[in-house]
Design brief:
Radius of gyration: 19 Å
Number of domains: 2
Number of strands: 10
Order of helices and strands: EEEHEEEHHHEHEHEEH
Bound molecules: adenosine-5'-diphosphate, magnesium ion
Distance between the termini: 23 Å
Largest sheet: 6 strands, mixed
Mean pLDDT: 90
CATH superfamily of the largest domain: P-loop containing nucleotide triphosphate hydrolases
Number of helices: 7
Helix content: 25-40%
Strand content: 15-25%
CATH class of the largest domain: Alpha Beta
Shape: globular
Length: 277
């Protein structure tokens, strides 16, 4: 598991030691789905600490439990074993301090752009309608869509829809943003613009971000740490710390070097064990 590199280290799966407790702490988290075909272990013995403001990417093959893990942290998945805490409190139900963003924008087509962002503020108590509109507009500005508040969702490009989804996720001011392959269906150019936006937002607001991707280069461009998952049952097999300065460009030479190294480690994890004598 060790990774000889100056820019990356493979160390136990814990956040760098800080005086404050981790934002998210998972201890021996496992998840088994039971069905007519029998039991399916989706996650096995996940141990992870994430500090407040950290950006952590999960990389792993399809079906290794990445979405299940995000759903556990979101409070959407019941019946797991082990301990999952946010701010030292067990995660049991969804909370406003954790929002999720998906590959499919999941916007409401019957609401315009502003209406979609306002929707996420509907349950936030103690705000007047005027304040809600101000907050929604400021988040549309944050993602560069202030001129599109009256647009219908179907008029927007894929990248703009994901920007609305990002504004909607951020508007309630969550501390933790859970992003499940949010850019996977976008073209390369649009993705690169969104990498810039997300880095800018992360450094401005210091959100804790957990981001699932298949794309190692994307993970290196965005993350403080990249965690590699094994095929099912998902377990965290390796960790790489990314110490490159921000903002990072997708095509940075240093990012390319580190991506190659992580990809090689990933291939070793995916390679079937050779049992020949
Ligand atoms: N609600 C469910 N019921 C039964 N099996 C599920 C359910 N959700 C996920 N799984 C299974 O758990 C495994 C992990 O799924 P998932 O977390 O979606 O993986 P990933 O996001 O890494 O592709 C897969 O084999 C999937 O089929
Ligand atoms: Mg998934």
């Amino acid at each position: 598991m060790s990774t000889p590199a100056t820019s990356a280290t493979s160390t136990p799966i814990s956040a760098a030691p800080l005086a404050v407790p981790p934002k998210i702490r998972l201890r021996s988290v496992s998840k088994v789905f039971s069905g007519p075909q029998g039991d399916l272990t989706a996650l096995q013995d996940i141990n992870l600490e994430v500090n407040d403001g950290e950006f952590v990417c999960f990389v792993g093959p399809s079906g290794c439990g990445k979405s299940t893990l995000l759903r556990i942290i979101a409070g959407l998945e019941r019946g797991f074993t082990g301990d999952a805490d946010v701010d030292g409190h067990p995660i049991e139900v969804p909370g406003r301090e954790r929002t999720m963003m998906f590959q499919d924008h999941a916007l409401f087509p019957w609401l315009d752009v502003l209406g979609n962002v306002l929707f996420s503020l509907g349950l936030k108590p103690g705000l007047t309608q005027k304040e809600r509109v101000e907050i929604a507009r400021s988040h549309l500005q944050l993602v560069g869509l202030e001129r599109f508040e009256k647009a219908s969702i179907h008029e927007l490009s894929g990248g703009m829809k994901q920007r609305v989804a990002l504004a909607r996720a951020l508007a309630p001011n969550p501390r933790v943003l859970l992003m499940d392959e949010p850019f996977a269906s976008l073209d390369a150019m649009t993705r690169e613009q969104l990498y810039g936006d997300l880095q800018r937002i992360h450094s401005a607001f210091q959100k804790t971000i957990l981001f699932v991707t298949h794309n190692v280069r994307e993970a290196v461009c965005l993350a403080d740490r990249v965690l590699l998952f094994s095929p099912r049952p998902g377990l965290i097999r390796s960790e790489f710390r990314v110490d490159m300065p921000r903002p990072r460009e997708f095509n940075d030479a240093a990012a390319a070097d580190l991506s190659r190294e992580i990809t090689a480690a990933f291939k070793r994890i995916l390679a079937p064990t050779d049992t020949r004598p």
